[in-house]
Design a protein that fits this description.
This protein is of the alpha+beta class. It has 3 helices and 4 strands, in the order βαββααβ.
Length: 103
């Protein structure tokens, strides 16, 4: 069974009103690819290293779907709306289904 895929995004928004257009535009591709928000700009505390002001974690059924969503023409339109209104770091990572410390 394939492991889930995740978007890990850190964003600094410079134009909050304009950024709302990006949020509205990303809804359609996120629905189409089965995205599920696990964290969406909530409270954070940086314990090590650096972080941007907004942290988002989005779950997909697998890594390939997460990548396909990011590379889709629909999401490209959303990215265009985000650019110039924010600075983002976006990483796609495959989930882990191996042994855990409690095992």
């Amino acid at each position: 069974m394939a492991e889930k895929g995740y978007w890990l995004a850190q964003v600094d928004v410079s134009d909050p009103e304009g950024y709302k257009e990006y949020v509205a535009a990303n809804a359609a591709p996120f629905r189409a690819y089965g995205a599920r928000f696990l964290a969406r700009g909530g409270k954070t505390q940086v314990l090590e290293g650096k972080a941007r002001s907004r942290v988002v974690v989005i779950e997909f059924k697998d890594f390939e779907t997460a990548l396909a969503c990011y590379n889709s023409p629909e999401y490209a339109k959303a990215i265009a709306l985000r650019q110039g209104r924010s600075v983002a770091d976006v990483i796609i990572v495959e989930g882990y289904g191996g042994p855990q410390p409690t095992d």
